[in-house]
């Protein structure tokens, strides 16, 4: 595994370097003494894993992690003198995209260091995670499904997700208009309606095939050009936070593979302009029909903009999704609670 190390203390930097190189399957591709330097190096040569110090002047480990996950996303392990003493910063770094944290090894005498085994164990675990994730993410064609919903959306989402096959191989990203405090509960409820894995979309998360990601913030959910979840404040004047328009628009500008946008039942116009942006980039777009909508506002607005390729009743949308992505739809027996 290609590993990079960031630490503003030269002695600690060398100790970590020696510790990593004690395992033959790892190589250290660069060393950085600051967060700024690490961000620049990562853009030039992206490692598989970065060992990131948390306390550094100017740009600390949290800020460096956030910047690297935006510019050159990769696995980041926080290595700090004391996780307990720096718990606030550690949790901030995990929220910014770091995968784990470990205490820095401490020199004992001239040669031995306490904590090396713990460090190498963390690195080995992350290496297995990376290998598994890469295998899970590899497809001959990069694909994504986006769904936006508002009033009446939870029931509509349950209908679609329950009808998709358990081995549906494409990541699904959803913006549902709901207060952020209820998103976790909605996620749990949807998990009971489908055999797919429904999870909260966390800042810095990579998209894995077969998972359903729910927007989980009062900021706008976007997907950047590295296929990573990012939340942003802009646009400030949006009525809805998160906005379906912003998600769809990020795909129109950043996505290099195949994408399908689906706009479901909802009041207002959110999602219509974003669906049009996707349509103009030759991405396929669906909208729910009037008869099956609880409220026809959002789909109607998109249709009026000529942003929709296909208008479908709710119970036909999952089948159309599978046809679009050439996925075999299989019968599923679900117990709805």
| CATH C-level name of the largest domain | Alpha Beta
pLDDT averaged residue by residue: 88
Distance between the termini: 45 Å
Beta-strand proportion:
15-25%
Domain Response regulatory: 2-119
Domain CheB-type methylesterase: 138-328
Transmembrane segments: 144-166
Catalytic activity: [protein]-L-glutamate 5-O-methyl ester + H2O = L-glutamyl-[protein] + methanol + H(+)
Q: Helices, strands, pairings?
A:
Elements: E1 2-6, H1 10-21, E2 27-32, H2 35-44, E3 49-52, H3 61-71, E4 75-80, H4 87-96, E5 100-103, E6 106-108, E7 112-114, H5 116-137, E8 143-149, H6 153-163, E9 172-176, H7 183-191, E10 197-201, E11 211-215, E12 220-223, E13 229-232, H8 244-254, E14 258-263, H9 272-280, E15 284-288, H10 297-304, E16 310-312, H11 314-324
Parallel strand pairs: 1-2, 1-3, 3-4, 4-5, 8-9, 8-14, 9-11, 10-11, 14-15, 15-16
Antiparallel strand pairs: 6-7, 12-13
Helix pairs in contact: 2-3, 3-4, 6-11, 8-9, 9-10
Domain CheB-type methylesterase: 138-328
Domain Response regulatory: 2-119
Keywords: Chemotaxis, Cytoplasm, Hydrolase, Membrane, Transmembrane, Transmembrane helix
Structure notes:
- The chain is of the alpha/beta class and 337 residues long.
- The protein has 2 domains: 2-137, Response regulator (Rossmann fold, 3-Layer(aba) Sandwich), CATH 3.40.50.2300; 143-324, Methylesterase CheB, C-terminal domain (Rossmann fold, 3-Layer(aba) Sandwich), CATH 3.40.50.
- Helix content is 37%, strand content 22%.
- It contains 11 helices and 16 strands.
- The protein has helices at residues 10-21, 35-44, 61-71, 87-96, 116-137, 153-163, 183-191, 244-254, 272-280, 297-304, 314-324, and strands at residues 2-6, 27-32, 49-52, 75-80, 100-103, 106-108, 112-114, 143-149, 172-176, 197-201, 211-215, 220-223, 229-232, 258-263, 284-288, 310-312.
- Helix 4 (87-96) links the parallel strand 4 (75-80) and strand 5.
- The model is unreliable at 134-140 and 331-337 (pLDDT under 50).
